[in-house]
Write the structure tokens for this entry.
Amino acid sequence: MDKAHFGLHTLMRKVWCLRGTRPVFEQQTRYEWDYLYGSMDVVGGEAHFCQAPSVSLEWDQWYLKDLAATDPEAIHVVIRDQAGFHLHDGDGRLPSNVRLIDLPPYSPELNPCEQLWDLIKDAIGNRVYKTIDELREAMTPVLRSWWTDSARVISLIGRPWLHDQANAS
């Protein structure tokens, strides 16, 4: 599980073009942000996303409740970073069927969601979005391609240590 911010400030991404030419893009510097919470299942390959207007302990709790409600009978083991706006394991605000495993500090390379955010940024980059709603609308097909294709999710997160950590808890 992880979260990322996306905004109206244009994401400049690398593009291919003919030798000797430079790509030209419209760009804006509006600092209005939207946040995407996401998690991917290391066993079944399901993906779960929620968009939120900010990040905070309250929004973290809201996301974990929404995730827990997807399968109320299951125990959801969530592997994630130790951001200050995350609830910690044992916190009374956690849903009863959610367990948390913290990644080591300063190790984003261990979180497969970081790779997913980069793929999403590639898909929506080099464009100007007038509103957050327009940005969300542009992100929906990209996210849908992940929540409808479990094989694609497994290909991104199929790491043995993730399975071991989830099973050890």
Observations:
- The chain has a mean pLDDT of 88.
